[in-house]
Amino acid sequence: GPDDGSYVDINVPEKTSEEISYHVQLLHEAGLLKAQDYSSIGDYDWKPLTLTWEGHEFLDAARNETLWNRAKSIALEKTGGLGFEALKFALTESIKGLLS
User: Fold this and answer.
1) Domain identity same for 8 and 46
2) What is the pLDDT of residues 7-46, one digit of tens each?
3) CA distance 65 to 42
């Protein structure tokens, strides 16, 4: 399980293990999941351990098509792009809009 240090092995046929490791590291640095760096000399290898609370919140909001589309519109309007921080902010604003 997530608390015993075991990791999830991810295989995506179109992606190299280095590409997957890079995205796992980015998600870890963004606070969306806990991951471990198993890299050694000449081998880049990040493994996901578990989603964080923030990762669960982000996924729950992103799964809602209405919220996701609204967040994309807000992010594009405010920043001209779909960067992670902009999307995260826009999802939060979209949720607040539904609650008010």
Assistant:
1) yes
2) 888 889 999 999 999 999 999 999 999 999 999 998 999 9
3) 41
Spatial CB neighbours of 55, under 8 Å, sequence gap ≥ 6: 27, 31, 32, 33
Q: Are 34 and 6 in contact (CB under 8 A)?
A: no
- Please tell me the distance from the alpha carbon of residue 32 to that of residue 7, in angstroms, as a whole number: 15
Strand 33-37 versus strand 46-51 pairing type: antiparallel
- Look up the pTM and report it: 0.73
Structural domain of residue 63, as residue ranges?
Answer: 57-99
Co-location of 47 and 9 in the same domain: yes
Residue 54 in contact with residue 31, Cβ under 8 Å? yes
88 and 62 within one domain? yes
